[in-house]
């Protein structure tokens, strides 16, 4: 679904190397112990716990016991929450793991089996419910004085439209009418990452889609705006915790 990815997986041992992405990662452990490093601490998620990892926060993933772990996760672009929050700072859940029943209930729809089809209106309602639950649990304040949500949204739209080429700060300043430093600060507040990271992530989104269509990694890297395949691989591994070839194996269900 646009702006949303859902996965269900089982891992033994090490699952992901340290990485970060510009989406929320919100999930639930179904069996076993899911262990990950997050914000200078080791976290442990047990069955029934809800995980809420903030955009652009480094984390990894591994089994906490020899039995492995089973989990479901939904990755949501912050822009979808901003459609509901209207320029409030993005909600942050301290520690990344919670037993708050409000979040457990608000994630039920999106954390169903990934094969379950979610209707468009159902998706809209689920996103709104989850955004409001996150804001309530984290006690997200109203927009801070001086924050310019409209300009940040213009910058995001511009980066979307030009994601497969080099974009300069001067271009973004011209497109939004804001100076680069204020805009970068506001962009992080409202979308959880920097403009450059956001641009890189859109390239990686396009890269994954091309990989699934069978395009070679060399051709993918050139098509989506990376300097070469090694350049793309470095960014890919930092974002998804594994190199492109391994990700493609998992995405296609190949062991």
UniProtKB/TrEMBL annotation:
The keyword DNA-binding applies. PROSITE patterns: HTH_ARAC_FAMILY_2. Residues 153-250 form the HTH araC/xylS-type domain. It comes from the Bacteria. Transmembrane segments: none annotated. InterPro entries: AraC-bd, AraC_XylS_family_regulators, Homeodomain-like_sf, HTH-like, HTH_AraC. Keywords: DNA-binding, Transcription, Transcription regulation. This is AraC-like DNA-binding protein. It comes from Paraburkholderia terricola.
């Amino acid at each position: 679904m646009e702006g949303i990815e859902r996965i269900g997986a089982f891992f033994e041992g090490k699952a992901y190397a340290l990485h970060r992405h510009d989406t929320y990662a919100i999930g639930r452990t179904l069996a076993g112990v899911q262990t990950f490093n997050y914000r200078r601490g080791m976290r442990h998620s047990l069955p029934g716990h809800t995980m809420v990892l903030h955009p652009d926060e480094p984390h990894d993933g591994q089994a906490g016991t020899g039995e492995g772990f089973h989990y479901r996760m939904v990755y949501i672009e912050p822009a979808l929450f901003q459609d509901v929050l209207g320029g409030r700072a993005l909600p942050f859940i301290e520690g990344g793991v919670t037993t708050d029943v409000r979040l457990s209930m608000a994630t039920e729809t999106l954390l169903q089996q990934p094969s379950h089809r979610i209707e468009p209106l159902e998706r809209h309602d689920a996103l709104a419910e989850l955004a409001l639950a996150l804001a309530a649990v984290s006690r997200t304040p109203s927009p801070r004085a001086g924050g310019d949500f409209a300009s940040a949204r213009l910058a995001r739209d511009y980066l979307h439209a030009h994601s497969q080429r080099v974009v300069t700060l001067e271009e973004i300043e011209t497109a939004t009418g804001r100076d680069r430093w204020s805009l970068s600060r506001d962009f992080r507040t409202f979308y959880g990452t920097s403009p450059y990271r956001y641009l890189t992530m859109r390239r990686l989104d396009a890269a994954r889609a091309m990989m699934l269509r069978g395009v070679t990694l060399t051709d993918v890297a050139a098509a989506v705006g990376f300097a070469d395949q090694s350049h793309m691989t470095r960014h890919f591994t930092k974002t998804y915790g594994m190199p492109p070839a391994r990700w493609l194996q998992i995405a296609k269900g190949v062991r």
